[in-house]
Design goal:
The protein has 178 residues and is an all-alpha fold. It contains eight helices and no strands. Helix 2 crosses helix 6 and helix 4 packs antiparallel against helix 5. It is globular, with a radius of gyration of 17 Å.
């Protein structure tokens, strides 16, 4: 320990979570980055961005309307599951950085924004929506830049969302055996 500040930094994986989170939050000192993080965080609240994207896909892509709607249901379902996991785990949000945005809840694990973003990336990406995966990645990163999640929250949320969408892929495509 080189200075007094090291006394307050956790060691091991939790310390790494803190350090990576603090480094990404520092990116938010640029007003343009902070504005983007706020906008993406707002758009991803309650999976709104992804639900709107899925419904828009259903309107525009009439031949695959059912697949788009089922993908939207998978995305919403993943989001609901993540909120349930939050209530079980009850990990507090980071306090070692100042947040750029307000949050609906006090718990951070897993990131529900990351869960719904990854579910949408997998589900809608399978339908050819090439813009969704990079946008989903940006939403995930926005939660770190905004300082409201640890990196492990975002990674766990993304894994949960991707797994949920992957498990529902056959149903989403309309496979009767799903």
């Amino acid at each position: 320990m080189d200075d007094l500040h090291d006394l307050h930094r956790p060691a091991g994986p939790h310390g790494l979570d803190h350090r990576i989170g603090a480094a990404l939050r520092a990116c938010g000192t640029d007003p343009r980055v902070a504005g983007a993080a706020r906008s993406l965080s707002w758009a991803g609240e309650h999976a709104a961005l992804w639900l709107a994207a899925g419904l828009a896909g259903a309107v525009v892509d009439r031949p695959r309307r059912g697949a788009w709607l089922r993908g939207t249901v998978l995305t919403a379902g993943a989001h609901v599951v993540s909120m349930g996991v939050k209530q079980v785990v009850r990990r507090p949000r980071p306090t070692h950085v100042a947040p750029l945005v307000g949050t609906v809840g006090r718990h951070s694990f897993p990131s529900s924004h990351a869960t719904s973003a990854a579910a949408a990336a997998v589900a809608f990406g399978a339908l050819g929506a090439r813009a969704v995966p990079p946008l989903a990645t940006a939403v995930c990163l926005s939660r770190l830049v905004a300082g409201v999640h640890y990196p492990s929250d975002v990674a766990a949320g993304a894994a949960l969302g991707a797994l949920t969408a992957r498990l529902g892929a056959r149903w989403m495509r309309g496979d009767a055996r799903a």
